[in-house]
Amino acid sequence: MYNSTLAGALECLDSGITTQLDFAHIAYSPELADAAVDALRAAGLRAVFGYGTPVDVTEGGKLTDVRRIRERLADDNALVTMAYAPLGPLATPMETVAKDWRSADEMDLPLTIQLASTPLNERPLFALRDAGLLREKTVYVHGNGIGDDELKLIGDSGATASATPGDEADSPRGREGREVRGPTGPRRSPPYRPGPARHLGRGQRSLIAQRTTARYQRSFLMVARATEVKTPAVPPAMVERKRTGVR
What we know:
The chain is an alpha/beta fold and 247 residues long.
């Protein structure tokens, strides 16, 4: 855990990324959580340790250890701070989501969650709104499959959104980049490590390419509909000549 977290943090610094959100969903023991925090501190960048629920657990995280790490990272102005990163409406029922949100409030922690439309919650932002769980101190990552009306809920709540364009493009429900706007303008989170791209600039170029491709696709469809492009019918005699070789 220590070596891999340190390597990822140093890779970010080498790419020009000085602020990192660490989605730590493999803290299966207190020792692993401590190793991740130690590595982030050793790297020397500004980091948020997002204590996550291990991905094969759906009944909430190990809150005792979450609270222990919160005591260790009690200074919210330090170089390494903390967030709570439960699975959220992406993979847990709303009863569990409500418990996790209350725990974050009790520990005065920001939330960071990966978000998408899934069979469990096809309209996750509306589910959060209806449960009274929209809050300002939240970062929503990805957002595949959610509608523009849900993005507006993020902006209106004062929360932020983060994107990893390469990951979103690989998703079967990926969409070109869209902007989250709040009452005072666009709302964006600090940079999120761009995974396989290994460089923040490549992630930005990926986003620009996706949006450009989407515009060309829409333009082509509009032209095709306007001109009613159709494949010309092939006369039967021509088909017969091609089949027999007779010219």
